[in-house]
Amino acid sequence: MKELYTDTVSAVRIYGHLSEWFTTGSGVRQVCTIAPNIFLPPMDTILNRTVETAQIDTTLGTEIFTDLDFADDVALL
Hints:
By secondary structure, the chain is an alpha+beta fold.
């Protein structure tokens, strides 16, 4: 996995035109099949600790929300 994220470069395509290539130093590649495995375990730990220590109310009406992260995104209420 380390090799997939070492010395990576990216470009942006807009209306069929490709930008200059640039190096990326952080983040997860788009449509990366291992992104959930890289992102979710540490995010679960961080979100669980945040909810526990900050005593955040995760209820909305009668619903209790316990898992607000998905793939490489987080929903913050």
